[in-house]
Each structure stands twice: as C-alpha cells, then as structure tokens.
Amino acid sequence: MASGWDARPPWRPGRLPLLLCMLLLLRLRSPARAAHIKKAEATTTTTSSGAEADEGRFDRYYHEEELGSALREAAAAGPPGLARLFSIGRSVEGRPLWVLRLTAGLGPPPPDGDEGPDAAGPLLPGRPQVKLVGNMHGDETVSRQVLVYLARELAAGYRRGDPRLVRLLNTTDVYVLPSLNPDGFERAREGDCGLGDGGPPGASGRDNSRGRDLNRSFPDQFSTGEPPALDDVPEVRALIDWIRRNKFVLSGNLHGGSVVASYPFDDSPEHEATGVYSKTSDDEVFKYLAKAYASNHPIMKTGTPHCPGDEDETFKDGITNGAHWYDVEGGMQDYNYVWANCFEITLELSCCKYPPASQLRQEWENNRESLITLIEKVHIGVKGFVKDLVTGSGLENATISVAGINHNITTGRFGDFHRLLLPGTYNITAALTGYMPLTVNNIIVKEGPAAKVNFSLRPTVTSVISDTTDVVTASTVAILNIPPGTQSSHQPIQPKDFHHHHFPDMEIFLRRFANEYPNITRLYSLGKSVESRELYVMEISDNPGVHEPGEPEFKYIGNMHGNEVVGRELLLNLIEYLCKNFGTDPEVTDLVQSTRIHLMPSMNPDGYEKAQEGDSVSVIGRNNSNNFDLNRNFPDQFVQITDPTQPETIAVMSWMKAYPFVLSANLHGGSLVVNYPFDDDEQGVATYSKSPDDAVFQQIALSYSKENSQMFQGRPCKNMYPNEYFPHGITNGASWYNVPGGMQDWNYLQTNCFEVTIELGCVKYPFEKDLPKFWEQNRRSLIQFMKQVHQGVKGFVLDATDGRGILNATISVAEINHPVTTYKTGDYWRLLVPGTYKITASARGLGQSAEYRHIWSLEISNKPNVSEPEEPKIRFVAGIHGNAPVGTELLLALAEFLCLNYKRNPALTQLVDRTRIVIVPSLNPDGRERAQEKDCTSKIGRTNARGKDLDTDFTNNASQPETKAIIENLIQRQDFSLSVALDGGSVLVTYPYDKPVQTVENKETLKHLASLYASNHPSMHLGQPGCPNKSDENIPGGVMRGAEWHSHLGSMKDYSVTYGHCPEITVYTSCCYFPSATQLPSLWAENRKSLLSMLVEVHKGVHGFVKDKTGKPISKAVIVLNEGIKVHTKEGGYFHVLLAPGVHNINAIADGYQQQHSQVFVHHDAASSVVIVFDTDNRIFGLPRELVVTVSGATMSALILTAGIIWCICSIKSNRHKDGFHRLRQHHDEYEDEIRMMSTGSKKSLLSHEFQDETDTEEETLYSSKH
C-alpha cells in the first residue's frame, strides 16, 4: 500500500516520554499535520548520468529516455513475437506511460506505432491477463527498476528455454508497466528514503505534476465526496481506460516505504484512520495471494521489516489488510476489484523509497521469486468459456457468479473467464440477458492449475413488442432537439429481460450494465438496508459522476414497499432501454445528454425478499426488516412522527440533500393512479390538501397518466374497488387517503424536488408472465414524465462582481409560496405551468422571513468563511420578537465596536483573531416592521407575518422560514460553544430550560453563564428590574431559569441545548421593548461589558484534542461530560465545552475504541486543556491504561495567524438608518474618546480589573491569569 500524507503520523505516543508527547501535540495541531516517516515527501531533482548499462547491470536508475531503451532491450532479449512495447497514454508533462507485453504468439507489431488502443495487439482466447504496475508514487523507485529486470528475465529465460518461464509465457498474458508517474520520478532524489519533512509539497516526486496523489485519485466505493476529477490525473484516466479495454485477472501494485503485502479493501465506510479490517467477499483469496508473494521474499516473510522510525511494526506472515493498516480512499487496488474483474494486491518492496542504485541488485534478488510466483497464481481457481448453445460462439460480458461469494466477474471478448478461488467445492452460475442462466454444481477446485468448466447457454425466445405509439406532444411537454413533425423510421430496442429479480439477480443485472456501458452509467450505493443489502442507484448520463452546470437531475425510486414490485422491474427495464438506445435513438440520446438520471430500483430490498409472487392485497414484505412502513417514516409537516427513522429512510434523505434533484416519482403498486402532494392535512382526514404548486403537480401527474390509457380512464381496479374513480388518472394524495410521514411531501418541503407517487397496477406482485405487459403500458409514460424536468424556468444566479455562481441563492415566484435554491454553480430549475411570472433571486444572509426579508448573519473573524475548528465559536441572536428590537441595536453596536477597534486595540484584535463571532441582529424582520418606536409594552410585531411566536417554533417540525433558517444554518451544525439571545421587556438573564422540567442537566454551568452576564451589568445583578408594570419584581442575582420566568415550549435556547449541544442564555436588556433612539447610548454602555465578558468566557471551560495512539486526530468522537452534556469532536479532533468551575467527569467514546474515563478541573479564570489519546491495544508506555489525559490550568496556547482586515463594517454602515431608530454613533462622543484612548495604548480596561492582568505591559489582554 502506498504511503501518503494522510497516513499515520511519524511518532507514536506510546514510544515517547510523556513530556515529549505533550510538546508534539502543540506541533501537530496544524491542519496540515505531519506525514508518516515512510510517507513524507522529499525535495530536489536528480538527473541521469553515465553510460548505458549493459544487460544484467544494476549500476543506476533508468531515467526518461533510458527507460524506453531498457524496455526495448528487454523485449529484444526474447524471440520474435514474444514482446510488444506500447504506451497506454501520457503523463501531465507528456512522458509516455510505457507497457511491455510479454506472451507467446503475439506476431509482428502494428504499423501505427506504439500508441493507441490497438498498439498492444489482439487479445488471445483463454489466456489470462496479469499486470504489474510500478512507480505510482514517483519517489518510490525500486519497483520501476525491478519490473524492467523482471521483463528482461522473462524474455531472456524464454529464449534460453527455461521450462518454468516458457510454460508461464505460453499460458499467461503478462503486462509490465514500470512507471505510472514518470514526472514524479524525475523530481525525486536518489538516496531519499522518505524519513524527513523534505521540503514543499510536491518536491519529493510522490505526486504527479499537478500535485495529485495517483493512489488517492480513483473512484471509490466508500467515497465521502464528489468523484475524483480525472482531468488532473491523466495517468489515472489512461490506466482506467486501459483496464476497461482488457479483462485483467490478477495485478500487483508495487510501492515503497515498508516491506509488506497489502490486500483490499484499502478503506472502509467509517474511514477510521487505522485499525478497521475492511473485508472483501474474497478475503481468503486475497490473503492467499499476499502470502504467495510474502513467503518468497526473505524480509517480507519475517513480518518484521524494521524500517527506520517503525522498528517495532509487525505484520503477521508479512501481509496486512489495507484499511487495517491505514485508510486509503481512492486507491487503485480497490478500484480493480470493485469495478473490474481484477484481483490486485499492493506490494511494499523496501523501507527506503529511493535507495542508492548500489542496492538494486539485492532488491531484485529479494523480489525475483515473489514476482514470478505471483504471476503463476493467475492460474488457480476455475477457468473456461461461456458460449451460445446454438451457434457455439463465445458470449462476452456474461456474468459468472459463485454461490456464497458476493462478487461476480464477467467474461471476456471470446467468452473466456478466469475466476480465482481457493481449493474447495463450488456452485457456479453463468448468466446473460437473452439466455437461460446455467448453474454447474459441485465443482471441485484443487491446489494447482484451475479446474476447467465450460457453459453453453440456451437463447430464450422472447416476443419483442414493437414501438407503434407516436410521441404525443403538447405545449407543456418538452421536445428535446427533435424537429416538430419529424417522424423517425427508427424503432428503439425494447428490453428483453422480463423476470423477477431477487437481490443477487438485480445486483448481477446492475453490475453488468455498469460494465457494458461505462461511458453513460455509474452504479453507486446510498448505504445498506437493515439486513445489509446495498441500496443501489444507477446513474445514467453522458457524463456520469459529474453534475454539469445547468443540467437538471431526475430520480425514480421503486419498491419502497417490498411487496410492490412492478416499479422495481420497470426501472430495470428502463435501464436496459436507455443504455441500449443511447446513440441510436434520438429521443433517448437527447434525454440522456440533457438530463442526469438516477434510478433506484429498490428502496426496500429486505421486504422484497419476504414478499410472494401473485400477492394482490397482503402486507407480507411491505415493511422493512424492522417492520416499519418506510412511507410513514419521513418527518411530516402536520404530524409528529415518533417511529425511529430507519436506515433506508436516512440514506434516502441524505441522498436527496446531496443532489440537486428537480423532479422525482416514487413507484408503488395496489392501484393505478398518479398521486400528488400533499399526502396529509392538519386534521388527519381525507380532504384535498393543496400545495402552493398544485397546478404544477397536476400537470406533471397528467404527463404520466395520459400516456397510460388504462390509468387515464380513471377506474383502475373495478373488481377490488368498484366505486373508486380518479378523473384522468390523477388524485391529490390526502383527498384519496391520509398518509402522514410520506416521502413525496418531504421531498417538496425539505428539498427543491417535486415528487409524485405513481401506483402502477392493482396487483402488487404480479406473475412474471405479466411483466412485458407492464412495460408496454408504462414505457411512454416513464419517458414523458422524465421530460417534465425541463419545464418552467432555469438559469444561473451569479455574483455581479466576479461572475461566480452563488450557492443557496433563493428563487422566489410571486404569489407561489414555495421558493427553491441554487446549486453549487448558481444553477437553478423552477417547474412552472405556462404563464407569465415575476421571479426574484436573492442571496446572502441565513435565509428569508415569511415576507421575504433577509435574515442577515454577520461573521466577525480574522478569516471569515474559513473553517478553523480549534477556535471557539459564539453566536449572538436578537429580534426573535419583532416588537423588541433593542437587542438588534445592541448587536449592531457590538459589531461596530469590534470592527472599528480591530487592528487598533491589541486586546480586541487578539480577541477577534482567536474567536469566531456570528451575529444575527434580527430574526424577525417582518415583526420589526410592524412595531413602533417608544412603544414599551405593545405586543404588535411580536409574532412573524404568519402570526407565529418564533420562540415557540423551534422543534423538529419547525414550520416558519425564520426558525428553519436558524436551525439548518446555525444550530444543527453543532459547532458553537455558546449562544446569547437578546430580548426586551425586563432586565434579567434566563437559562434553560423554558419548558417545564424536573431536572436541568448541566444546571451549574448554565446558571454560571447567566450569572456572569448579570454580574457585569451595573444593575441587572441587583435583581430588581424596576419595570413600570412590575415594580415589585425581585429576581435574585438577576438570574432565573426560563420556565420559572415564562414557561413555554419550542424555545430557541431549549432547542440549542438539546439539538445543537450549545448552551444558550436569554438576556432581557430593557424594560421597554422598543426604547427611543435617545436611550440607545446608555443601554449600550450598560451592556457592553457584559457582552464582552461573553466573548472572554467562550475561551474558558475545557478545550480538548482527541487522537488515536498513532497521533491521528479522531473526528466525530462523542465527549460526554458529567454523564449528561454531549459534544462531538470537530474536524481535526478538536472539541470545546463550557463548564462551571470545579471538577468534571469526562467519558470519551469513539467507534472501534473502548469507552474512556477521566476527570478535569475547570478554573474560573482560564481554560483547561485536555488531550485524549485512545489506545487500541489498551497499553500506553507499557502500562495497562486506556486513556492519557493531560490537563493544564493555563489558557490555550495561541495559534499564530495572519490577520486580515475585517470587511464587516461596510455591511453595517449600509443600512444603519431605519424609521428614526438611529445608530448610536451620532450620540456618543465619550465612546469615540474611549476608542482613541485604547488605540494609543492606554491601560484603561475594556472590562474591570477582575478580567484583566494589570501587570501586563502594552500587550494588554482580555484574558486573565495567563501563565
């Protein structure tokens, strides 16, 4: 396995004194992190020199020109017709990617030269292909030389008649690719073993010339992001194309940096840094192959390579599972196994990446026998041909499946196959569309040469239904690049595979089409069902894996109810139809070229396996394996769904949030009708529940039903439901019957996607013989419905200053209360019926209010919009009640104060540099517009434009746009350490909870935060607000639990604590809701110190860093404090939690590790620093302890950052005047004086002496007790 920057760090805490471990922590906090010793980059470039070595000489490395010459010499060492030198492509800098093919009977080379798809020569029937790829990382060079020596040995040995090598090349097609990264090799430096930092990124030669690690650039089954951009890695693109043109059976990927044989999988779904054994379905075969290599290598077989820096590293039998060693996402060996027929292992040949040339002879001797033995292993298992029983011709791309092993291969161009297997007895099936599958049972595989098994498949007789229906068009139906009136004589190819596909059959079907049509398909999985079946999706597009700006995305989902199977089979038919007709049928070609199509045949594969053919009305198999109805499992706008959210539901919701779907249909069975939102209503009764886009939904529903004549008639199931009638074959969901928790409503309300539910027939699980009829009835409907994704309006929202697309800009249509948002490149699609519309695009801010006013969010930081997880983050929110805008003005004053003093006052500059401050001045701008200045008690404007008190809407079913904006964009991110909400109507601070509860978790901390604000206020801490309407009110310390002050449900601070894992206090800053502008300076003066004390306090509590024993940070670990407070570690392993002074218990939990326990003492005047080290072997420093916690009573050491001038003041000034509620800078000369005093280095404190070390020099600070 290749070494990488993201692999294990260089030093292991278990091998260092405690003090050194603490010091290294400070050094490793940089996001770049140190690389593993054997995986670090090197510097400088070396050049070749000296005369060309004679055959067999090991005196130097072959550089650019010499490599091609050396390979030609190797080819010439054998007899004519044994070798063929060609290039599969070129590197970034234009160097050829040479491959030497070695096998008997090749014939003369082609006249077109050594490049192009035909340069390698024709494939040979029945001869298995083996490839060996070296120098993928340019600075790992032993493989580059060893493979040249191997080529020379094979060719020369064949010429001299060596029986073993003659037999090998007579029966095996061997391909040697010495250097996949020739550009990197030219930058690398002889003698650089990869033990040091080595200079700037890319200097070592590890990556290609565009700085890309080739072994992190392949498509990955467990990918956490977008597919890799192959334009940056032409070397990888060339290799993938080469793999697709061939049927490689076995492969070795040769690296350096250790001495071990590594096998798939290289990563896991969890992407833990190390320690996760990620097993393939062929785990035993892979271990056998790895041992075959390791056991013949004198160092590797010991399992103790003793590499410098890793002297204690051991590998049992000299082999390791890739992910168990360390996680590599985007690796080549996994790509070979998952996406091709090829079994590949990764071979680390030497501790030193680029050893001196004097060691090359020894390296060759170490690896010679291992390499030849590995090539010989291509002949184990089962081999044979799959042929047409009638014609005798070989059948390409037939699927070979082995019972009990969840990994299939496909046949080659001549129908030949080689399936690697260990000795045992197997049942093997060959299958191909259009043929009856054939299973051969009890095949005995012995040690040694493969067992021979041939399959002769009988063609099936299928009546193909011709397409006699014209394309029906209307003014509302999109015609994609087909001239009106054109009648094509072309008849599209119809599907032939009409049978019920159980999960293994469906998987074979999907993989076969993904393999046969790689240019327009991508098979991927959303996750797994309860019973661990993959939730497959087939993407069909002319650019699979990529969102093309401006191109809409469409999806069909089938088999949500496991016993409703017609949708599952129709989507498989549709995959076959689109694939086979792309490029020949104009309608299909234009649809695929203009639309990114995602087809999910089965959302409930577990339920399907329980269902029974012929079922019309039962519920057997309807639910998932936990017995929950998936179409009652989505969050609902009217009903609280209490059932636990199922894995299938979670996977699909995540999918819908990740892709910019525009249109969708959910395929069901049990009736014959298109059902559109809403599916339920507030009363829970059968009544028409109209969405804002009711006209659009009727139009797209009709586009489907009118192409299905039986559906369009509207009386679908006369025998079962004689009184049921659906005009034109469509119905409003709730008007038919009430469905709370349905998927189609969730699509419409929570994403940009318009979804309908299509009932495909009265019989849920029809007999197989009826499936062709269902295709004929629905094929035109399926195509016409997809075309609707192009209706309405589409376009881009761009930044006028730089032309870049704006993500999440809002597209609003006047008089239709349903906005949509833009995708990453600013592209949007808005389905509409024909008509004239007024459309508004808006951006910036967190979101919009009910009346479409912006909810502004201001971030103050030295690096706005840059993630710095080690910095504490604080949130200030005001104006939740529009009639109390006093908090709004105080927050604008705070923002102005921080911005004007940045780079003037050292204390505030340091505060801004070390803190991420987010200010939301007005959460309810609509209410604010209705409220009146100087109105101290009126409730006018308290609610939003829909009459909702926003502080009662913070629930999982939040209904208001204002609360949704805060929840989705701030609270649910769970990355804030503290939140302060400002309101009016009294002078006090409340802490959670506002809802009536018996006990309050973390009460002491919450009360401490509230008391801190009150104690820094000149009058609040006295507890006597003295408000005119409540003159006798007494609040001890000015602090009270929210429920004791004003008990209510759905408050922002309760939601913040429960779901955002962030403590929040509410500050009532003035008896008057809307004081006059003349009172603002005095209110600012009263609250300034308290507000700044919150910025200071957010740096206290416990700052932590979680890593494993290797030093790899652990993100998403759960930190539980005092058995109640729960936070998660951020990117980079950081966490931060505010706690009251005193002793607190810590429990640390991470997948793959045992739960850890410790205590920490929190100081009142400084942060405590905690380092948590998980130890997988339960021993650190040789002691039986599971956790190392280093606690410091000092403040966190400062990160040295380059501060940028903050732009925020410009935004503040632009809207500072509103309805006479003026900005306070017009009124406070003393404020200006204070700023001037600070900027000249005065010792006048921002806070009182209890927050400041008065012994400080000119570098005065807000932090106290800085030890």
UniProtKB/TrEMBL annotation:
One of its GO terms (molecular function) is zinc ion binding. Residues 1-34 form the signal peptide. The chain crosses the membrane at residues 1187-1210. It holds the Pfam family CarboxypepD_reg. The active site is at E348, E759. Residues 60-378, 499-789, 819-1098 form the Peptidase M14 domain. Residues 193-202 have a biased composition (Gly residues). Its EC number is 3.4.17.22. It comes from the Eukaryota. Keywords: Carboxypeptidase, Glycoprotein, Hydrolase, Membrane, Metal-binding, Metalloprotease, Protease, Signal, Transmembrane, Transmembrane helix, Zinc. Belongs to the peptidase M14 family. This is Carboxypeptidase D. It comes from Equus caballus (Horse).
